[in-house]
Specification:
single chain; mainly alpha; 2 domains; elongated; binds iron/sulfur cluster
């Protein structure tokens, strides 16, 4: 069984290298060049993108910091704390075309985050991990922001490592995402008998204990491309040789 997990992990690593090009937050099919450059130029934009990543498509969330900066005329967190209110931020986000589906909620979350970054992190999001590279601590610190649940904090930390190239330690604490595509595949492959977060998480740790979160992308892409709820394309699927093909399972996911 150990050999099986080892080989499956190796396959996932190989696939991840390929699929990251089209599935990273920073890929060309996700963001326009100027939106991406802005995101890469300022770590504060990363936090605002992460906070916005709810109830909208990922590309809408991650381009929000760029357009917010355009509408504000700057992206200086100190100035925002002095010059803006939740109401003024809400009006800016709401302005047509709206930057988010929930302007009020986003304005509250962003206002809180900006103030927290100014007061506790010397106005720079990078200070969240600059002197403490422990991924577990980064997750805990992100979780202290309004609008960032534990799940989202783990996703944010995963994106920092996977898409933004930040080198963190103790990646074992970043688990695989408990996502519908992944749940369906775990059931069909025979990696778990039950569809619950605990079983999926512990099964993923058996495959890649040092960084279970690294499995999210290869499994998620397989779910989206091949292992659909009905008519799975097993003959084309890169996980085929590792799969028990229990295709009667997970049809409702
Ligand atoms: S081989 Fe078939 S059942 Fe298994 S993960 Fe791929 S598509 Fe799903």
């Amino acid at each position: 069984m150990e050999k099986y997990y080892e080989q499956l992990n190796a396959k996932c690593k190989e696939v991840a290298k390929e699929v990251i090009k089209d599935n990273s937050i920073l890929s060309d099919n996700m963001l326009k060049r100027e939106e991406k450059e802005f995101l890469l130029s300022d770590w504060n934009a990363f936090l605002i993108g992460l906070i916005s990543d709810q109830s909208v498509k990922a590309e809408i969330a991650w381009r929000l910091p760029y357009y917010l900066s355009k509408r504000l005329g700057h992206f200086d967190f100190c100035r925002i704390t002095k010059e803006e209110t939740i109401e003024s931020l809400e009006a800016i986000i709401k302005e047509k075309p709206a930057l988010h589906r929930y302007p009020r909620k986003m304005a509250e979350y962003i206002f809180f985050a900006v103030n927290k970054i100014v007061e506790e992190y010397n106005s720079d999001v990078k200070n969240i991990w600059k002197n403490d590279l422990n991924a577990e601590h980064v997750v805990a610190k992100l979780e202290e922001f309004k609008g960032i649940s534990h799940k989202k904090a783990a996703l944010g930390t995963l994106l920092l490592v996977r898409d933004f190239g930040v080198i963190l330690e103790n990646l074992y604490c970043i688990d695989i995402a408990y996502d519908v595509h992944i749940r369906r595949i775990f059931l069909r492959m025979g990696l778990t008998d039950k569809d619950n977060s605990k079983d999926v998480t512990s099964s993923a740790r058996k495959i890649c204990n040092e960084f279970p979160g690294s499995l999210t992308l290869p499994f998620w892409v397989a779910g989206r491309e091949y292992c659909r709820p009905t008519n799975p394309k097993c003959e084309e699927c890169y996980l085929s040789q590792f799969c028990m093909k229990k295709t009667e399972m997970g049809k409702d996911l």
